[in-house]
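From the methods appendix. Each design record in this collection lists the tokenized structure first, followed by the designed amino acid sequence. Records were kept in a plain field format so they could be parsed without special tools. The example shown here is representative of the layout used throughout.

RECORD:
FOLD TOKENS (166 positions):
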């Protein structure tokens, strides 16, 4: 099956960060109508983030585990799950307030939203490192790895047959 993760994650990063940006603008410039923009981006972004986690867990099964991928993937996975949980909580909370951030909850809500944005951007950054520095799920890297393993196993069997002859 196709790897949808790279396709989905761009939407999650864009929608959720724009959502938080508009909520901050709404509160700091005292323009409550901007919260509507924040709400719709949050609604779509949290759905896409859930999809990003599902497609990520699926992509993990076909990833190539080079040393770099092995050390970075757990951070990426758990930060990605934490991000989805944080924005799901914000979505449920926001829905319970009729889509508007109540005055008394503003600081707490925006603090949680900023923490969520930091985990989101860190997840995306590590995701980029996984692909562009360590070749996770890059077809050509997989093929090279297979060729190296094949060469190594044929070298070992040739060396052992030479040792046997001696
Ligand atoms: C909100 C959640 C997540 C976000 C925003 C996210 C973001 C990203 C980004 C930006 C990339 C680089 C893709 C590219 O540049 O083409 C990536 C790659 C990757 N991510 Fe995630 N990710 C999330 C959750 C997860 C989870 C839970 C896993 C599970 C292990 C995961 C596994 C992977 C894998 C294996 C790759 C390598 C490329 C691939 O196989 O598609 N991700 N991610």
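DESIGN:
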């Amino acid at each position: 099956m196709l790897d949808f993760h790279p396709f989905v994650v761009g939407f999650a990063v864009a929608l959720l960060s724009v959502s938080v940006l508009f909520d901050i603008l709404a509160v700091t410039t005292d323009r409550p109508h901007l919260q509507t923009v924040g709400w719709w981006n949050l609604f779509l972004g949290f759905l896409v983030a859930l999809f990003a986690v599902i497609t990520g867990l699926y992509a993990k099964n076909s990833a190539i585990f080079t040393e770099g991928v092995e050390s970075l993937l757990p951070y990426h996975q758990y930060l990605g799950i934490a991000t989805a949980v944080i924005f799901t909580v914000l979505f449920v909370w926001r829905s319970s307030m009729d889509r508007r951030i109540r005055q008394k909850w503003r600081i707490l809500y925006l603090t949680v939203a900023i923490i969520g944005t930091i985990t989101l951007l860190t997840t995306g950054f590590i995701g980029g490192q996984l692909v562009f520095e360590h070749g996770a799920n890059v077809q050509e890297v997989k093929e090279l790895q297979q060729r190296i393993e094949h060469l190594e196993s044929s070298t070992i069997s040739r060396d052992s047959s030479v040792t046997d002859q001696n």
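APPENDIX NOTE: The mean pLDDT is 94.
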